[in-house]
Specification:
This protein is mainly beta. It has helices at 66-74, 135-145, 163-173, 182-185, and strands at residues 2-5, 10-14, 23-28, 32-38, 42-47, 53-57, 63-64, 84-89, 95-99, 113-116, 119-123, 156-157, 160-161, 190-192, 203-207, 213-219, 224-229, 231-237, 241-244, 249-259.
């Protein structure tokens, strides 16, 4: 059984072995994955933290030892919470710009050093101190950090993000791991039928006439939702769904509200 780790800011995960195929997700710096299949040009991987699977370019594959995997999986991950951070690899004159939600394996808060496989990196920028005690307020703070980020199918970063990617990365930075896709995220938490019952940080799920879940967003305050549709935006929400204030019409039909945080 082989494992690898992302030493780039973003690694595209694709549905097929082609640069032209659909990007289903992205692997962020410091995230580990299991190798399920490999050929001359492509590697089929499964992410450790959410089980998502896809193909990555073999040139982006960085293997790690069994000993490293055991230690990595035994520690709680340290995640970056600034929109962007800079890290420098020892012996390398260049730096890497990494995004919010990246993992800093074996991070030393004093030296600001971390270890990715055999390489040692140093965090150049400062870690964000949000100074927020409420988990719900923290989730809203992180969600608004992505405001106006362009929509990108399969995206998980401030360069571009999709609806379930926004929900997943925001919750992950707050210490809660969720599945990658909205259709799986809806299976967790406690059901609520009325928008009036929702609290900041609750998740609202939307779907089509067949009942399939096609969209998800984060409740901010009563009748407001943060979601990725064209860009990360704030819109009105009621019992019918999301009312897009730019288009002056409903764009998503509400199916259920889920409470992930147990207060």
């Amino acid at each position: 059984m082989s494992f690898g780790i992302a030493d780039l800011s973003l690694i595209p995960m694709r549905s097929e072995k082609s640069d032209r195929s659909e990007m289903i997700s992205q692997i962020l710096f410091g995230e580990m994955y299991q190798v399920l299949e490999m050929d001359e040009k492509w590697v089929y991987v499964r992410l450790i933290h959410d089980g998502n699977e896809g193909w990555i370019d073999r040139k982006m594959y960085v293997p790690v030892s069994d000993e490293y995997v055991v230690k990595y999986r035994s520690e709680s991950p340290m995640l970056t919470t600034e929109v962007f951070n800079i890290v420098i690899k020892e012996g390398d004159y260049g730096n890497k710009l990494i995004v919010a939600g990246s993992v800093l394996p074996f991070f030393d808060a004093i030296t600001k050093k971390m270890r990715l496989g055999e390489d040692v990196y140093t965090l150049v920028s400062k870690m964000k101190d949000v100074g927020i005690d409420s988990l719900r307020d923290l989730i809203i703070e992180y969600a608004l950090m992505y405001y106006n980020t362009p929509y990108l199918w399969g995206g998980r970063s401030p360069y571009g993000i999709d609806c379930s990617g926004l929900v997943q990365i925001v919750y992950r930075m707050a210490g809660i791991d969720l599945p990658r896709d909205a259709a799986d995220q809806v299976n967790g938490g406690q059901d609520f039928s009325f928008v009036e019952e929702a609290l900041p940080g609750d998740l609202a799920f939307f779907g089509d006439d067949t009942g399939a879940i096609t969209h998800v967003g984060i409740i901010w305050e009563q009748n407001r939702i943060i979601h990725a549709s064209g860009r990360v935006r704030v819109d009105k929400i009621d019992h019918q769904g999301i009312f897009n204030e730019d288009l002056k019409r409903y764009t998503h039909n509400l199916k259920v509200i889920k409470r992930i945080i147990n207060d």
